[in-house]
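Hi R.,

Quick one: here's the DUF1127 domain-containing protein sequence you asked about.
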Amino acid sequence: MAYANTTSIARKGIADRLADLKDAVLTAIAQRRVYARTVAELNALTDRELADLGISRLRIAEIAREAAYGK
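And here's the predicted structure, written out as tokens:
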């Protein structure tokens, strides 16, 4: 017995694709702001304050990247 599949594939129109692009750009901008703010705040701390937090200056970029983009 043969079966016919009548499910149609929903295709995104240009408006949907532009909306997705806008969302992606806004997300990227927000992530970059979190990264930059985290780096600035950690760089503003003294070596003593960073040591109290258990953070080395060499790890600031890594910590900011994890804060902004996840692991």
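The two ends are 50 Å apart (CA to CA).

Cheers,
M.
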